[in-house]
Design a protein that fits this description.
Elements (H helix, E strand, L loop, with lengths): L9 E6 L6 E6 L3 E6 H6 L8 E6 L4 E5 L7 E6 L3 E6 L8 E4 L5 E6 L4 E6 L4 E5 L7 E2 L4 E3 L11 E4 L2 E5 L4 E6 L7 E4 L18 E6 L5 E6 L4 E5 L2
């Protein structure tokens, strides 16, 4: 099936782990769309997939993420430098707005049920505790993580058991632990051509994606030259 309500590029989609029939999408059209696979199948003989809800944002939406334990709430990051957390039973106003980044928020991931880590092109990751949201705004993160370089590209973000992996525009993978602001580990990719194996003169390579394998110490990382590496944290 196809779901074609967004008017501009779709940056991010996420299925709810708690309700696998539900997914969300975020777009350059400054909206988040909620979709039900069951609803889409029901209407498939009439039209393409039909959304079941829309959140109107103030700027481009770069990332969407459901909590691990619920399909009733959602977080998303925006080009207006903010993260928004919604109770999906009220799409008109965010339950909480997280303010602290000074450039586009490129990724958000739930570390656990109440803690979110965000990545931005301001060279930082930030950790937020949603339980401290008493007046619909959090303007102080629990932790800010610095050491990697990220001012332009989407370099990836993945979390596993308190460890946070991200890429860098220095062609390195950085791993942080949620308790400490500095990197715990880093790994630098070689500037090699993935087909010939020859050294490349291109120094603009960057890490483009990272992903932990489940709740394990194994990480897959890829860079902008097409190299993919499987890394083990020991």
């Amino acid at each position: 099936m196809e779901m074609r309500e967004h008017e501009r590029r779709v940056w991010s989609i996420d299925f709810s782990s708690a309700d696998p029939t539900m997914l969300a999408s975020g777009s350059d059209d400054s909206s988040v769309k909620l979709w039900s696979i069951n609803q889409a199948i029901l209407f498939l003989h009439l039209v393409d997939g039909v959304s079941i809800g829309t959140i109107k944002a103030k700027a481009n939406v770069c990332c969407v993420q459901f909590p691990l334990d619920s399909g009733r709430s959602l977080a998303f990051g925006s080009a207006d430098h903010r993260i928004y957390y919604y109770d999906l039973r009220n799409l008109k106003i965010p339950l909480c707005t997280l303010i602290g980044h000074n450039k586009t928020v490129s990724y958000v991931k739930f570390v656990d049920t109440m803690n979110i880590v965000s990545a931005s092109t301001d060279n930082t990751l930030k950790l937020w505790d949603l339980s401290t949201c008493t007046s619909r705004v959090i303007d102080t993160p629990v932790q800010s993580f610095t050491g990697h370089m990220n001012v332009k590209n989407f370099v990836g973000l993945s979390v596993s058991d308190g460890y946070i992996a991200t890429g860098s525009e220095t062609n390195e993978v950085f791993i942080y632990h949620k308790a400490f602001p500095m990197p715990a580990l880093s790994f630098k990719f070689d500037n090699t051509d993935p087909l010939s194996g020859h050294e490349m003169g291109d120094v603009t390579q960057f890490i483009s994606s990272v992903c932990w394998r489940g709740q394990s110490s194994t990480l897959v990382a890829a860079n902008s030259a097409g190299n993919i590496k499987i890394l083990e944290m020991v």
